[in-house]
Amino acid sequence: MFGEQKVSFSGVQPSGNLTIGNYLGAIRNFAAYAESYKTFYCVVDEHAITVRQVPAELRRRTYETLALYLSCGLDPEKNTLYVQSMVHEHAELAWILNCFTGFGELSRMTQFKDKSARHADNINAGLFAYPTLMAADILLYQTDVGPVGVDQKQHVELTRDIAERFNQLYPGTFTVPEPVIAKNGMKIMSLADPTKKMSKSDENPNAVVYILDDRDTIIRKFKRAVTDSGAEVSYTPEKPGISNLMTIYSCFTGKTMPQIEKEFDGKGYGDFKLAVGEVTADALAPVQANFARYLADKGALEAQMKKGAEEASYYARRTLSKVQKKLGFVQIR
Ligand code: TRP
Questions:
Q1: Cα 143 to middle of ligand 1, angstroms
Q2: Candidates 3.40.50.620, 3.90.79.10, 2.120.10.80, 3.20.20.105; correct CATH number of 7-181+298-327?
């Protein structure tokens, strides 16, 4: 809460191309919050460098991620859209929170375990402390709700623990946030292995549908999607492949699982996969058209980054100086 206003905060990393999993699980749901919350949506470039990045690509993707926020309907007059590294308070509060977070707590984070297995040659302290930077993002804005994909729920729960611990020592410092998991934006799984999450860093390009894939590519990827034995379109744990495609179809059409089962009753997997490809391509077409338009005007994107950073700083500064004062840092005005 900032004053009377409830706050919603979320972030997206500018690493890798964003997938329909990111879209359905998070970004698509962001716009609705502006109705009843003060909303901050951040491009988290400081999180991205916990694994090695090619600088030119990181820069390009930072522009792209901001353009994508705008393309998905986030109105910059109603939402604060900005880039993390342009607001220095994030890194500063993260340091402080590191001093209030246990080694054991961070060791238990499943994302850390996964990423350190995948990047065994570069298990750096930043990767380990990734959740405290995320906690800083959230707590700086006195966030009430953090809309995140299911994979980030554990990090928001850790953020709550850190906030409560800090508040016990220094009462009234932080709002304790609630994670909000998208209702029907359930976890979207890989098209090649439906037991694995669809990940933008997957090496198999057929496993992943990107928000910016063209229509033919989308339809081809769904045609190749791994399905299950049998021939019926039904939502059951025995059919993880078909169930995943049904989730995607349901997210894009708003239809329920029984409705989808009925719609494809007597039809084969082939027809169903084609239909999933078509609704996905149709739904993404307007986002893609907007994206091309926003990306073409770099100057306007930079102006937006500057405006967003100024807005965010105003709030971030207030929380950070409150924290510094409580900790006993000397403040001279
Ligand atoms: N860690 C999140 C992800 O990879 C991104 C993120 C960073 C975030 N800071 C955040 C999400 C704060 C919600 C709130 O998806």
A1: 13
A2: 3.40.50.620
